[in-house]
Amino acid sequence: MKLTLRVWRQKNADAEGAMSTYEVDGISSDMSFLEMLDVLNEQLILSGEEPVAFDHDCREGICGACSLVINGDAHGPERTTTCQLHMRSFKDGDTIDIEPWRAAAFPVIKDLVVDRSAFDRIIQAGGYITAPTGSAPEAHATPVPKADADFAFEHAECIGCGACVAACPNGAAMLFTSAKVNHLNVLPQGAPERETRVLDMVAQMDEEGFGGCTLTGECATACPKGIPLMSITHMNKEWLRATRKAGKR
Description:
The chain is α+β, with helices and mostly antiparallel strands. It has eight helices and seven strands.
């Protein structure tokens, strides 16, 4: 395939950015999107130009590092991570726009790479559990209802890629935060910090400068791991419960 790529280029967070146009040829439909970008970068290096900086790590759809907006869609036209998107999703002669995540809380580091450490700080604000010291309990000593285990696992699948923020018209991080809150709060091990966890993580989310959630649903549509929109509703109930309990103390 021969493609026209319009790629966002920006030297750093303080520099002005702009779209640059490149032509690539000989692209196989079996290539992943990131392999196609590797071909582009080889072409740029050979011509003495600066290669395009973009994030990636596992290239197996596990880590969530491959954060790109492709033709206006977070991770591209398929509901998957960018590294698992293949060029058969495009046609010969297509023009493809490639941009970084767009959110005030995700400042651009260079080109297509953004700083997502705001997610780390949200997790740090409440992502731990109290563990009693002494001998380790038996693995099955604390029974967990299957419905709760399934709910926790569904939310633990969140890989923190940030597609929910990039897809949201408000740049909200509610789906990510709710996934991290819910997968711990529903389990017995997370019960001791249940109230403080949701209050602290939501407060940190607001402090990071993410937008407000208006439940448009774009976050859940873009999520490559299928975190449901009801996750936000569940976290809101947890937050209200914790707020009321804290007010009575």
